[in-house]
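Protein in question reproduced for absentees:

***
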Amino acid sequence: MNNNFYKRAAGLFYSRDEAERAVRALKDAGYDMDRVSVIARDADNIGGHETTEEVGNKADEGAATGAVTGGALGGITGLLVGLGALAIPGIGPILLAGAEATAIATTLAGGAIGAAAGGLIGALIGLGIPEEKAKIYSDRVKGGSFLVIVNGTAAEIARAETIMQQHGVEEFGIYDVPGAKATAVTDVDEDLRTRTDIADDEKIRLYEERLMVNKQRAKAGEVSVGKRVETETASVAVPIEKERIVIERSDATVGTVVSPGTADFAEGKVAEVELYEETADIKKQAFVREEVSVRKEVEQETVQASETIRREELEVDADGDVIER
């Protein structure tokens, strides 16, 4: 193993399409495909063999094997170098694409890491992945997820992480490669003495504090508007008319003689007069006396606040001919 590649990243993708898109994005970004591996479970068969058979490493068969197992790994096999296949106890048949993955298949098939060591779990632990995480990866592969493993320097792994996160990676982790150290100049992504570009994780960042303002809305008061009923006695004068009968009697001239047959001597009712009178019919009726509208107005005012903030400034202690831009 090249100790320059002292970091290893691993993560799971739920589907083959997600894993393939992530691997293709790594390739499009210029990532070396020799450092990318994919491990997946083949639910039906491996390269045309029954699942009960141990197939072993098929890296030497190249594209032919990739075409046979394309149903499980799809276009991933055309992106990565090497292809392996193996039946692991407790998991079943798995496919391994990529140089490191096929090396794992060779190791497992050769019995160097047997069932007692946990099969795939033991192989992942041997790659520097913690046991707890290795169990998660193994269980998820058994359930149909795709495990993608990437090797590289810290800068390369940082770029790979960004790409994998953009494509929905799960259970992502970055681990140290056993036995590899990043202490020599050769462990850096490139020799900084000859580079003209600086990777993002190698740049010096100057920080400053800023005042972040948030407004909170709180209840400041409450106004209730209601009505009450007041009573009073109202008086009104209504003139009415009543009819009364008036009977006036006067004495006739004594001795006045009436014509013969004029005098009608009779008994009973001789006249009838109807009398009328008015009564006051008083009722109450409601009328709109006044209209009242209720609304709110917003008044604005400025609240002044001050805090002490800090800001970093770059200090350059130059010795020699240094150009600062």
Q: What stands out?
A: Strands lie at 7-13, 36-41, 56-57, 83-88, 92-97, 146-152, 170-176. Residues 16-28 form the longest helix (13 residues).
